Amino acid sequence: MRDLKSARIPESNTKGLRLRVQLLFGLFLTLLGTAFGRAVYLQVFQQEKLRGLAQDQYVRQIDIPARRGDIFDRRGTPLAQSVEVDSIWVDPSMLPNVQQAARQLARAVHLDGNDVAARLSRAKRFAWVKRQAKPQEVEAVKALGLPGLGFTKEPKRFYPQRELGAHIVGMVGTDGHGLEGLELAFEDELSGQNSRTSGFRDAKGRKLMVQGAMDPLERQGAAVTLTLDRHLQYVAEKALAKAVEDAKAVAGMAVVLDPRTGELLALANNPRFNPNTPEDGVKNAIRNRAALDAFEPGSTMKAFVVAAALEQKAITPDTLFFCENGAFRIGRHTINDTHPHGWLNAQGILQVSSNICAAKVAEALGREKMVAAYHAFGFAERTGLALTGESRGVIPFPKSDISLATQSFGQGMTSTAVQLAAAYGALANDGVLMRPYLVSKVVDPDGVVLLENQPTELRRVVSQRVARQVVGMLESVVVKGGTAPKAAMDDYRVAGKTGTAQKADPVARGYSDKRIASFAGMVPAEAPRAVILVVVDEPKTDVYGGNVAAPAFKEIATAAMAHLAVPPSRTVAPAEVAAAAAPVVPPPAPKALAKAVPVRAGLEDAVTETPEPGTVRVPDVQGQAGREAVVKLLAAALEPQLQGSGRVVSQTPPAGALVEKGARVTLELATRQ
User: Fold this and answer.
1) Cα 501 to chain centroid, rounded
2) Which of 40, 381, 404, 427 is the most buried (most CB within 10 A)?
3) Span 77-85, average pLDDT
């Protein structure tokens, strides 16, 4: 008989199983709820953070440097440009032997091996080998076949004109930021805006692709156009270098300025440097002396003292001053002239550059009026060339008689070369001072003009009558008997003034035996188109501006007149010019001087016939070298055509023929046998 009790499941076991199932279900439900809550927390509250972490694994933000804007001369010739070059980097973790690889890389890129090894040892995944490497260096590195090498394009500043205008343009550093000159002054405009874009990378950090290329115009800097003329800048630098070399001087400056507009056509410095390889330059060669340095200008200031005295009617052109025969005592000091002179009028003072009589003119003018005149001519105020560190010069108030005397001939005060050229520009521009400027305009890639300079009249310094009187007096400086006959030109009338200043010794608190020789001139004198200043610092072969600086002025002026196509001046007979100058007057006969013919009238009496408007007479160039003949014909507004080489043996049309301006003149050249 079957036992029914044994067939039934115990009630206690069934209850235990049910409890275990419930507990397991609750556990799974709790875990599921926790996971769901965690997922909600991560997906909702930590979404942005996790997205950033994820993108950081495979997405890299890539900085794209902007292409730096170009710098041009007035005719569009590039003075500074940016080009794309390779920079070399390496992943040191992938190199089998870091020290050996460092030596190989250093030899390939011409760097110090220890320096390269130190950089690779410090880095883990990235180290620069060389930024902005040369093409041959890039090829040499690629030939090594080392693992972990990378190459990236970076903009590099390139100066196609090399040394030409380098002091004005300046230079940039390896990081692409301006360090000197206009590169520094217009850093914000030239640098443009850097852009960023997203790129993907693999597990080893290698860039796979870039999402969308940026428009190059959107990351390009503005273009800067200067007033400089490349040709005149070259001529000025060449002539200045020769003057400095011939005088065995330490440095030099030259300025070419258009007096009608204030535009700086050339701004030369010596010694020079190449901004492409600035490390090869000499010490202090990078400094823009012409715009930044202040120096004592010497006797070039006498023209402004005479002009101010004439304007204030303190003197007249016929007023006589006794020059004390070369020595004049003021208190404990004695003023000396280079040569002894007796009685001189204003023209004679400028022609022979008498310190003593200049001091007497200043005394007649008065302290306040002399200082006010210097300020009116633009001294002791910055010209605003937009160059960092521009000096303003100093005009101390002359409290003593000796200070008044020394400042009348440019000692005990300072000026920059640009200030001095601009002041002579005021005399050349009929007494109106124009603001000198170097930057013509700044234009962004879209064509929007960010900055544009126009000719600006600052003020009238002296009347037109006085300005022309003084310019006429300055013409006597370049004739026989003046201090600068070496500045005279065959085809153009020249007016100018020499300067020879003692250099201050800051240690001894006095003046040393070193000198600054200068010549400031304008050409053509009857209607000046260019003011040219040449300054030679510490000449050793000769210290006088008429011998050291005047020849460089003549060389620059000759090229400038030809380049600017300025017609030759009216012919002046040398004998009549010398007679018209005649500044020295014996003391007993002052009335005779009052009847003397003024220099301007004397020059006008020597004028030859004037051709019909639009025509010009063909100059005689036979026997001259081809280059000299071309310059002479260009100056006469004629078009030269050369046949052969050597010296001119014949010309068509013949010399003296009356032809239209721009007519072609054929020159036959031959080498002498």
Assistant:
1) 25
2) 427
3) 86
Q: 309 — phi, psi (to 5°)? A: -65, -40
The strand order across the sheet containing 647-652 reads 639-643, 664-670, 647-652
Q: 430 or 209: which carries more pLDDT confidence?
A: 430
Rounded to whole angstroms, the Cα distance separating 337 from 326 reads 5
- 14 or 507, higher pLDDT: 14
User: Where is mean pLDDT largest: 25-29, 218-222, 537-541?
Assistant: 537-541
Q: What is the DSSP string of 104-160?
A: HHHHHHT--HHHHHHHHHH-SS-EEEESS--HHHHHHHHHH--TTEEEEEEEEEE-T
- Cα 353 from chain centroid? 31
User: Which band of pLDDT confidence, cut at 50, 70 and 90, is reported for residue 208?
Assistant: very low
- Listed in sequence order, the residues at least 6 apart from 354 whose beta carbon sits closer than 8 Å to its beta carbon are 323, 337, 341, 344, 348
CA neighbor of 254 nearest in space, from 277, 272, 276, 279: 272
What's the Cα-to-Cα distance from 620 to each of 370, 491, 559, rounded to whole Å?
Answer: 48, 12, 18
In the chain, the percentage of residues whose pLDDT exceeds 70 is 83
DSSP 583: -
Contact between 383 and 422 (Cβ < 8 Å): yes
The pTM score is 0.72
Tokens 């004397």 -> residue: 602
645 is annotated as an active-site residue:
no
C-alpha–C-alpha distance, residues 178 and 221, integer Å: 13
**Domains defined for the chain, CATH in brackets:** 64-226 (3.90.1310.10), 233-276+290-564 (3.40.710.10), 615-670 (3.30.10.20)
pLDDT the model gives residue 283: 65
Q: Which of 299, 440, 518, 569 is catalytic?
A: 299
pLDDT digits (tens, 9 = 90+) for 525-583: 999 999 999 999 999 999 899 999 999 999 999 999 999 999 998 655 443 344 444 44
Q: What are phi and psi of 615, to 5 degrees?
A: -120, 165
Q: Would you state the pLDDT for residue 571?
A: 57
Question: What pLDDT score was predicted for residue 599?
Answer: 31
pLDDT digits (tens, 9 = 90+) for 616-647: 778 887 777 777 787 788 777 787 887 777 77
CA nearest to 429, candidates 512, 495, 363: 495
8 A C-beta contact, residue 233 and residue 73: yes
Cβ atoms 193, 446 nearer than 8 A: no
Beta carbons of 377 and 461 less than 8 angstroms apart? yes
Q: Are 406 and 412 in contact (CB under 8 A)?
A: yes
Q: Under a CB-based contact definition with an 8 Å cutoff, are residues 344 and 352 in contact?
A: yes
Q: Are 410 and 362 within 8 A, CB to CB?
A: no
> How many residues comprise the chain?
673
